[in-house]
Amino acid sequence: MKLLRINHLGIASKTLEDAMARMDRLFGMTVEHIEEVPDQRVKTAFFPVGPSTLEYLEATDPDSPVGKFLEKKGPGIHHMAFEVDDVDQAVQELLAKGVRMIDQTPRAGAHGCRIAFIHPAETGGVLMELCQSPH
Ligand code: CO
């Protein structure tokens, strides 16, 4: 597998309104895209930064992974996502090495991406996502 770029950083925020107000105040940036991802029980707001994106995450359910993260740690960086050209193959490679995965098979992410999370116990405490863009 080859990591092509950092596709996005996922940042947990109490609300997307907070995040949007902050990005406007700090950098004069407006949101490019807002999307709900029911599978992860989050709403996401995207701010492109060069070849990468900041992906703000608001929990739609306090018991979702992002909801629990916010309760435990408060707002902040939740995960980083590496782009790969073939996420199925990447997951297979990692499983073959005995790497613990949160997702044994890729699932639907925002923007039509297919994503899989590696277990943070394998990555030095950083939640890492692999994602494959639809185009
Ligand atoms: Co992500």
Brief summary of the model shown:
The chain contains three helices and eight strands; from the N terminus they run E-H-E-E-E-H-E-H-E-E-E. It is an alpha+beta fold and 135 residues long. The structure holds cobalt (II) ion.
Model description:
The protein has 135 residues and is an alpha+beta fold. The protein has one domain: 2,3-Dihydroxybiphenyl 1,2-Dioxygenase, domain 1 (Roll). The chain has three helices and eight strands. The protein has helices spanning 16-27, 65-73, 87-96, and strands at 5-12, 33-37, 42-49, 52-59, 76-83, 107-108, 114-118, 128-132. Strands 2-3-4-1-5-8-7-6 form an eight-stranded mixed sheet. The model has no long low-confidence stretch (mean pLDDT 95). The chain binds cobalt (II) ion (CO). Residues 8, 10, 55, 79, 81, 129 line the site of cobalt (II) ion (CO).
User: Strand percentage, roughly?
Assistant: 35-45%
Global outline: globular
CATH architecture tag: Roll
User: How large is the radius of gyration?
Assistant: 15 Å
Strand order of the largest sheet: 2-3-4-1-5-8-7-6
| The CATH topology | 2,3-Dihydroxybiphenyl 1,2-Dioxygenase, domain 1
Q: What is the makeup of the main sheet?
A: 8 strands, mixed
Question: What's the topology here?
Answer:
Elements: E1 5-12, H1 16-27, E2 33-37, E3 42-49, E4 52-59, H2 65-73, E5 76-83, H3 87-96, E6 107-108, E7 114-118, E8 128-132
The protein binds cobalt (II) ion.
